Amino acid sequence: MSLTFRARIPEREVEAEFELGQGRTLGITGPNGAGKSTILGVLAGLLIPASGRGTVGGRVLFDLDDAGRGTWVPPHRRGVTLMAQRPLLFPHLTVLENVAFAPRSRGLGRSAARDKAMQWLEDLSATRFADRRPEALSGGQAQRVALARALAAEPEVLLLDEPLAPVDAGGKTELRELLVRVLAGRTAVVVSHDPQDVGELAQEVLELGGR
Amino acid sequence: MSLTFRARIPEREVEAEFELGQGRTLGITGPNGAGKSTILGVLAGLLIPASGRGTVGGRVLFDLDDAGRGTWVPPHRRGVTLMAQRPLLFPHLTVLENVAFAPRSRGLGRSAARDKAMQWLEDLSATRFADRRPEALSGGQAQRVALARALAAEPEVLLLDEPLAPVDAGGKTELRELLVRVLAGRTAVVVSHDPQDVGELAQEVLELGGR
Amino acid sequence: MLLRVDLSSFWGLITSESSLAALWLSLRTAATSTVLCVLLGTPLALVLARSSFPGQRFLRSLILLPLVLPPVVGGIALLHVYGRAGLLGQHLEVMGLSIAFTTTAVVIAQTFVSLPFLVVGLEGALRSAGTQYEGLAATLGAGPGTVLRRITLPLVLPGLASGAVLAFARSLGEFGATLTFAGSLQGVTRTLPLEIYLQRETDPDAAVALSLVLVAVAIAVVGLSAPRARAAARGVR
Amino acid sequence: MLLRVDLSSFWGLITSESSLAALWLSLRTAATSTVLCVLLGTPLALVLARSSFPGQRFLRSLILLPLVLPPVVGGIALLHVYGRAGLLGQHLEVMGLSIAFTTTAVVIAQTFVSLPFLVVGLEGALRSAGTQYEGLAATLGAGPGTVLRRITLPLVLPGLASGAVLAFARSLGEFGATLTFAGSLQGVTRTLPLEIYLQRETDPDAAVALSLVLVAVAIAVVGLSAPRARAAARGVR
Amino acid sequence: GSGGGDDATEEEQTLSVFAAASLTDSFEDLAGEFEEQHPGVDVELNFAGSSTLVTQLQDGAPADVFASADEANMDKAVDAGLVNGEPSIFATNLLTIAVPAGNPAGITSFEDLAGEGVNVVVCEQRVPCGAATERIEEITGTTLSPVSEESAVTDVMGKVTSGQADAGVVYKTDVTAAGDAVEEVEIAQTEEAINRYPIAALESSADADLAREFIDFIQGSRGQERLAEEGFGAP
Ligand SMILES: Nc1ncnc2c1ncn2[C@@H]1O[C@H](COP(=O)(O)OP(=O)(O)OP(=O)(O)O)[C@@H](O)[C@H]1O
Ligand SMILES: Nc1ncnc2c1ncn2[C@@H]1O[C@H](COP(=O)(O)OP(=O)(O)OP(=O)(O)O)[C@@H](O)[C@H]1O
Ligand code: MOO
Ligand SMILES: [Mg+2]
Ligand SMILES: [Mg+2]
Fold first, then answer.
1. Which residues contact B40 (CB under 8 A, 6 or more apart)?
2. Which subunits have 3 or more CB–CB pairs within 8 Å of chain E?
3. Which of A9, A71, B57, C174 has its CA 20 to 30 A from that of B50?
4. C139–A149: do the CB atoms touch at under 8 Å?
5. Residue-range domains of chain D with CATH
6. pLDDT tens over chain C, length 237 residues
7. If contacts are CB pairs under 8 Å, which of residues 158-197 in chain D contact chain E?
8. How far is the CA of B148 from the centre of ligand 5 (A)?
């Protein structure tokens, strides 16, 4: 799915525009507060911009004129999944249930969704946490699970906000290799401060100016 | 203040021991889940270990035998300040009030504490957020403020859990330089996955084994 | 209080036909009212906590009204609505449905006075839970119904449960509105508080004994459903 | 209800001496009781939410008891404690303090029935706020008192406020316990609900008119103090 | 109707009686006896304060018989067109003084109630027992300064039995019901403020004959005997 984006969020002094071809990955970099998370929030449908337009494969996600009127598709109908900057694992669900959440929401049966979730946890070397609650995970462990949960949604467009920040050195290399495989052929936007992440994962780069 | 530490937290399969001379900085590294945050929690007094002993300059922080009996000094009387892995800024206070919190708790008057907080915010190039609520900060901005808040406590022992993880590339260099200055002569423990952090900030290194 | 009742007559009293009928009626109606409060109160709390519209403050005040109304006045108000000649009651009457002075009326009275407890508790829980998890769940493809069922409601379950306990307790103790709106007919509308009230007219000690039964039931329900105590402050990640 | 009262007599009625005395007494006592509920209820909620000890469930049940007690029974219980011959009352009597038939008794009755509202609301807020911020504040050098004053209480302020509003509303509507425990004397113990109840004996329409006054006061208080509506779901960081 | 029944299966029939709360014990017993005498009849009793009962009747409560604790409330029912035929008086109740066991304030007469430091509780003048108390005050030329003016006799009794009050002006039936908890000090002029209990069949009754039979039973010798046990006077 090709992606186009143009939006203005004046309360946060954020303004950005880009296009991305089908199956490619955009890396967004820029100093703290440049608006990286804001852009992902607008794409995912969690933030309503003052004005702008976004499309996926020609389908409109939002299209708001300067008065803020127009189309705005709610998050669950966008086919866009966000892995936010904080893990935000659902605290009342186990790790496995967290990862199975998206497959279940897509209509998969309980055990099929569990199997799928288990596979993703395996890919992220996190199966041994499957039955824990999120509160009993370390920072890096929680991040891995959040990544698994987003990947398990298998969306048209995947948005990752600093996916590897709290991951240990060895894990970074391992997960980067995994992401290269997973993102191949999938449209994605990855935010990172790490030039290595951007270099290995993204085919295009948007460098935001900072303040 | 010299620091000694020995503790066992079997629920988390964590066990560690180290000594640190007065004014020196210990870098702790190790894979996700190795127990880095756990050690800082025990030192700060937020987690009670099954057994162990910790001292600062000869003063006992905790001293628990295998049955878990013994001395345990509450966090506010330890002279140990923790910057946790998540910023955990007080949501009901402004940024300035967050940073002024420790000086105020130490008994400083309102305006003296404000001045001190302002200075720390300046050192961390974060003065322009002074009047904002934490919820209106980006991930990296919140981290800077959390760092300022911990530094403003000017404790005997400073514990920093991945202080620079979500900070942008330029900021990392700038803040590392600042920390080198601040930690000079102060006893500190810094957890980080970044070899550069450990290399530049720490005089000693504890490498935890992972699972 | 205990001193005033000797034990043998106590047992005879609380197992008398009228006492048992009243206790059983109280338990049944309070349980039904609690279910109704949950069914009605949950959408109301969601509307109050998750949307903003003109007149929201007024709606909240309206829902909280039964809290401040002396129950007797609440009972009069219910008569004006559901009574035979009432706004709604006269239409129901035409359809052959008569509510006043039936067990249904007891349930309506209890639901009326208990609803605010559930709504207030749940609204607070919803507000403090925030909307972050809900937004994230939506980006994982979950529609509003799924989000409600699998995220929102489970997250506020402790708030919902404590609201339901309060509603049950309040229903169990309801007196004034029931007496006025539903009357006091043994086995039909005479709940335990009404039985106690009547006993007090003629035998104050018996009234105290029955009160103790009510207290015991209430302690059992409230105590058992209390939130499990969490271990003391531990853990910062 | 409105239809039953015509406007001119309505005004005369609600500005009559007895009505005004009752309204003023109700406002004063309900405000005092609310303050007492906050002062007593805050430590209780803290103990319930932040510590665990044997008998905690029982303590919670005990605090919640007035919720389920029919107010009249609550009044009887108060008599057994604070009455002239009561457990505490007889000692107070010796010290020359007589509570019976005074405005103090009204405040005690209202505080008794309203306290659970505050405790339940605040305990829930304390539990969902968690202890992370408190622990962190302690590592910044803040002692328990400072943590309580600058972190814990401000964090749960919305819960405390909504609990206080419920307590005020409940105090304003309190009827049964006041009647039983404090009596009913104009200007001293006869609050607005008691006045309404009396009016109903002779002039039901007048009682309805007075109820409307009570409702208006309640709507004003509850409506004004409602949590400000937050903007709809926005922002994930 | 109740007629038409042979010895075949009895037709189930309900007689709904709305009665003042002070009649609870006596009417429950009498209703049981009435049911025994009338197989197939089920007497449903609804007890509350008389004014509450009138409100309920006005709002369409289905009932056959109304027994009020005062004439004012019965008049309201009559004025509202609820009553079928004339109400009749079936019992009377006299005012008396209840004092806590031991009579701590040493009350011996109505006039004593006006003494210094006597905590006396009465009914408010807007309720029947309060109106009667006021009449006694006029007759005796005594002005009471009560510490509380209650809305129901029950609440006056509550203050006396608990020892809160030194004395309360109540009905003889209340003193009888309270047993040992209180002592009685008679009011010499009590006959001047007699309280009458009227009973009447209601328009909404489905079976006027049965309602009539119940009223006759209450007014008959067995009914009067049982009421006298509770302290009620003859009409
Ligand atoms: N409610 C809010 N949440 C987050 N940011 C906000 C909010 N309100 C205002 N802002 C501001 O919007 C700007 C963009 O924030 P954003 O979170 O998009 O930055 P970012 O590029 O993701 O930074 P970081 O690298 O620190 O995560 C920042 O200056 C921030 O302070
Ligand atoms: N309540 C808990 N909070 C945090 N960790 C817990 C908890 N309970 C159990 N654990 C486990 O304790 C171990 C140590 O966790 P800790 O947070 O100290 O790791 P860490 O070294 O800080 O890892 P990271 O680099 O991911 O932050 C982990 O395996 C974790 O899963
Ligand atoms: O029950 Mo009555 O009508 O107050 O005597
Ligand atoms: Mg960000
Ligand atoms: Mg950690």
1. B82, B84, B159, B161, B189, B191
2. C, D
3. B57
4. no
5. 7-236 (1.10.3720.10)
6. 444 556 667 777 777 888 888 999 999 999 999 999 999 999 999 999 998 888 887 888 888 788 777 777 788 888 888 877 778 877 887 777 777 778 999 999 999 999 988 998 898 889 888 899 999 999 999 999 999 999 999 999 988 988 898 888 889 888 888 888 888 887 888 899 888 887 877 777 777 788 888 888 877 776 666 554 433 333 333
7. 179-180, 182-186, 189-190, 194, 197
8. 20
